[in-house]
Give the backbone structure.
Amino acid sequence: AQSVTQLDSQVPVFEEAPVELRCNYSSSVSVYLFWYVQYPNQGLQLLLKYLSGSTLVKGINGFEAEFNKSQTSFHLRKPSVHISDTAEYFCAVMGYGQNFVFGPGTRLSVLP
Amino acid sequence: NAGVTQTPKFRVLKTGQSMTLLCAQDMNHEYMYWYRQDPGMGLRLIHYSVGEGTTAKGEVPDGYNVSRLKKQNFLLGLESAAPSQTSVYFCASSYVRGGDEQYFGPGTRLTVT
């Protein structure tokens, strides 16, 4: 079975500052890792995913994430945030042939 | 290409009433899923389907039933609604089950009074 931890439930940050949203997972099998974003009153949209290969993954809107197998982490980063990045961010893990397991989410608030 | 659509967008039910949520996808995906989203708990899988005519239980299936009579549609039913089922419900679909992203609908906000 898999589980996902997102330690920060809320992250406030000023516009143009860097941000890191943390995600740790546990699994007894190899996993695929995903970050989704949810804007207010909308469904979830894929930001980026790690399936294999390079551990640094680049996604949409300038976000990137790094897979660290030894630390079982998949932290999301952006070097300079905008007001429009205000949203809730979900980390998800999937074992091959299994279902998604989502973390509880991190609410990112970008302040002017 | 509409992607994943959900009907209705909002609904208020009284305890004990029944209703059906409809999910439709036009991407020819084999796999479809129903999740509920509650504050601080992320998304939890209710039921899923690996193809037309098949359904399976997820993490929180109690109080819900599903049907997949057509490949493009996945219905979620509440036979006797309870206040604990107040939530936002999301449908998703994917081409394969492992290693592929899921595409989400816009959600249905259900309130049970």
Notes: The interface with chain B takes residues 4, 9, 32, 34, 36, 41-46, 49, 51, 90, 94-100, 102-105 of chain A (CB under 8 Å). Chain A has no helices and twelve strands.
